[in-house]
Amino acid sequence: MKNPYIPIPIKIDKVRFETDDRLIKTFDLVFPNKEDEKEFNYYPGQFAELSILGKGESPIGIASSPTEAGFLRFTVMKVGVVTKALHNLEKSALMGVRGPFGNWYPIDEMKGKNVVIIGGGFAFTTLRSLLIYMLDDKNRKAYGDITCIYGARNPGLLCYRDELEQWKKRKDVSLYQCIDWTFGSKGPIEEAAEDGWMPINMKEPGKTIIKQDVKKFTAFVPQLVSAIKPESKNAYAIVCGPPIMIKFTIPVLTELGFPPDRIYNSLEMRMKCGIGKCGRCNIGRKYVCKDGPVFSLKELESLPKEY
Amino acid sequence: MKDSLKRMKQIKKSKLPELIEQLKKDYDLIGPCKDGDLVLYRKLEKDELPFLGFKNSIKSPKELFFPQTEEILRFRGFIDRRIPEAIEEKVKKRIVIGMRPCDIQSLLIIDKLFINDDYVDSFYDKLRENTLIIGFGCSNPASSCFCTSLGGGPFIAKGSDVFMVDIGQGYLLEHVSEKGKKLIEQLPEASEDMIAMKQDIEKKASKSISSIDVEAIPEKLKTLFENPIWEEISERCLGCGVCTYLCPTCHCFDIQDEVVDNKGRRVRNWDSCMFPIFTLHGSGHQPREFRYQRMRQRIMHKFNYYRKNFGVIACSGCGRCVAQCPVNIDVREVIGSIKNIK
Amino acid sequence: MNDTEKSMKRIEKEIRKIADKLLKDKKVNLIIGFEKGTLPLRARPSFVRRPEEVEKLIWNSFCENNLAVYVPFYRRFLDQGDRIALVAKGCDVRSLVLHIQENVLKRNQITIIGIPCEGMIDRRKLAREVSQNEIMEVTEESTSIIVKGDGFEKKFKRDDVLCNDCLICTHKKPVIYDEIVDVEATEKTDFIERADIADFESKSLEDRWKFFAKETDRCIRCYACRNACPSCYCNECFVDCARPQWIGTTVDDKTDLQLFQIIRTFHMAGRCVNCGSCTRACPMEIGISLFVNKLSGDAKRLFNYETGLDIEEKPVLNKYNEEDSNEGFFEENETN
User: Fold this and answer.
1) Does B167 reside within a domain?
2) What is the C-alpha separation between A38 and A30, in angstroms, rounded?
């Protein structure tokens, strides 16, 4: 019986800065042992515990899609002891991984439906996994329209910018991006925060008229969702972002007609073991590491308000 | 009756040391030992006998299966080149003698968490597999005991391999499992009189145990998350970890790395949901800032969530938390208060 | 009922009367006192907010907790204008004085109901005397205690079963108070050192370490000692600090345990009021107050200082005097 606490050796193959503030790096990791790679079967939405012996472990969402063979991609923000040590490691460094853990996005349930992906900041990481999975030739036909709305505070903080450029060109996905406008004392202003990022109707985002080829906006993510008005019939919404973005996006989706069992979230929580034994990450009877981190709004509403 | 006669063996008190030394030949024998005023479970040395004149040990024997500090792996080398060296020490075969039914029941309760279809905790599993248990009936329960309210009892043998009862002039030993049968095969059979004596002691002991009504509690707790009772119950609480660390069903732990020069290890250490930093996020977000929130979590987890997830209440009524809480917070009283909420 | 029991009952009545008046006059919103516990012999902290509830307040020689430990929990409410009254023995009042000296509390935020105390009984000493039997009832007399259980009855001299800290207490009468229960308490005037502390000090450094290591060997890091102590109220205790992490929670290697005990002991230097709550709270019966009180003895010897006697005073390690003893500092000719 395999010991679930022992990390599997994994090597850093590629490292790069993902955002201009240099606080977020993307790591491509490769298993030195091919057997381990074969056994690491994962789905979009799952996470792994990245282990640096001597520093500890950190639960990080898997950014690569299972359709991308040969490597695991993780996008990591430098926040604590482990992530700081990780940022100091270079190509060919040996570290460890445990996983894959948790549940995944409802990729089977969503077959035949339209999918609206909404992401904010660096929480987009597992959404990348989902998007690449659905866009893969083998899978694309299984899903309906795919809309992606992704925002960050400024253009330099968007992740995967080279891939965003490619997705913009595709016909089988509608990609919208937005950056924040910092409200000054004058309140909401209908101005582009930067060249090429069109303003929306700040007072009534729902009344914004979206011109044909305009895909980049100055808006907060919830407002852009209001402006684009994704169709809720036969559609699922997957939302990942900082708590405040989620707080304001959910009501918008609800108003557009998305029911609680078709709105999905990925939660962040303090975790240690990743396998539902250490007792740390529970919300009510559910362990975020084992029964989550992906939860539908319906499930979340049935749990105690302890988050 | 005939069947139970066959299972029931007996041994005079003067003959017990012989049996103990016999068991020590093939197994590490762990039993209750006196350490000053305290009773603790540890390995019995040569010629050492278990101390059986106790009500219960101060720390529960859960630490024999889930140690307070347990090594996960060791490593050495520079930080970008370390590989885990799994710890290859073989787990020795052991017998724990003198374990109380409440503590045995607690193992059955946490078995469901540590060993299930999702993941098996290899460390706990190995220790459980390699340990036989000789349970010991409680002839004189303490005033803090309440095992009978949680499906247990002072003479319940379930979960042990052999079950032992003190009937005055000697002990009765009943084999509960096949492995246990072998341990006491050679002992003489108990007489009907002896069995009758055991039943008398059992009746008296069971009657003396305090009882609480937990029947409707899990369902009721579902509706009480926002109830002001939690602030009332926890006003006295100091926020220490005595209840969780002495509790035989508490299982929360932390994982830490330790390094000295270029050698190190990863360990898991007990942790407590009653400590403020238990749920502190790296970002600074603190979901359970106040004592009442952590008290609520503890009671909800034991009497509601665990039952929902694994079918049993995570409490065996051993009463250690009741006896040792520095400010006498009594979980029996807490359950009673919850029961009385309209 | 004997004389001592009558006197206990009288103190109890006084406490209830004072509490009742304070609540009815709306001088305080909350009274923290003692009530009957759920196990034989136990008394426990009680929180009373309405006059009808004062009947649950009790007094006996098992009212052992130092209730000043709750003051830091109520800081926010006190600053918002709520007022608390506290039933306080001699040592508890000293904790309140320490809180005032250290700016945790303002004098006018607390109403002190002082109780001159003849000492608390050590339940463990009683238990030791009856081995594994359980005491179900106790009767207090002026110089003796009678305990009863299932099939036994025993009598002890009071001094034989009093808490170690109470035996040498020289501040039985509250040093400050707003209300005081009028009862005699025979004050010892000389500072006495505990026999076990004297014994510890007579050991060589090596033996002291061996003793300390053995005593703290069984610590389980439950922090009952820390949380029961009114002087330990840091928002972030050094053991909980993660960045940097000073010590871990490992127990098989004793380093973390020993560091915790040593550092905590020294954080208590000159701040301990001798209430014994730490030792009482420790489930592993570690003699914590021995080590802390050794430092209290040092403070008395080196700087003639006793904790918590005067609200105008500063804590001993917060002030400096040129005549202060230099013991422990290297002299010019020392060859250490």
Assistant:
1) yes
2) 12
